[in-house]
Design brief:
Helix 2 packs parallel to helix 5, helix 3 runs parallel beside helix 5 and helix 5 crosses helix 7. With about 150 residues, the chain is mainly α. The protein contains 7 helices and no strands. InterPro entries: Glutathione-S-Trfase_C-like, Glutathione-S-Trfase_C_sf, GST_C, GST_C_Theta, GST_Theta. GO terms for molecular function: glutathione transferase activity. Its EC number is 2.5.1.18.
Length: about 150
């Protein structure tokens, strides 16, 4: 939950880059965290549910039309994410990683986990992912996403 992340950042006085004290940078983090619920999270989770859970629960294969529709919805918000939030910056709030980057990448790993490599044809997004993984630590990132990256095996 976003509320819990913000609480933990404040309570444990995490390094400033996670939830910046600079008001403009913090506003960028807050803006993304507010936007992502119905956009990145909403569309990424919808693809995950549609591609994996619905066929698993219903025993029916997914129609190609439905998959195409859900994928296109995600592609629209990915374009918005690149244009509005990443722009030409290394991270969402500027030159340093923040909670916004962490939340964004975690949400984007759900579609990747069901076989949709959304980074493949988006070099800006792929480069950002690499920076986020590097900042968090590649080993920790892989450990944290191990289950979701194997979701397609359900």
């Amino acid at each position: 939950s976003i509320a819990i992340l913000l609480y933990l950042a404040r309570k444990y006085k995490t390094p400033d880059h996670w939830y910046p004290s600079d008001l403009q940078k913090r506003a960028r983090v807050d803006e993304y965290l507010s936007w992502q619920h119905v956009n990145i999270r909403g569309k990424g989770s919808k693809l995950f549910l549609t591609k994996v859970l619905l066929p698993l629960l219903t025993g029916q294969p997914l129609s190609p039309e439905k998959l195409e529709s859900v994928t296109e919805e995600l592609n629209v918000v990915l374009k918005q994410f690149e244009e509005k939030f990443l722009q030409d910056k290394p991270f969402i709030a500027g030159n340093d990683i923040s909670l916004a980057d962490l939340v964004a990448l975690v949400e984007l790993m759900q579609p990747v986990g069901v076989g949709y490599n959304l980074f493949e044809e988006r070099p800006k997004l792929a480069e950002w992912r690499g920076r986020v993984e590097e900042a968090v630590g590649k080993q920790l990132f892989q450990e944290a996403h191990e289950r979701i990256l194997n979701a397609k095996n359900l």
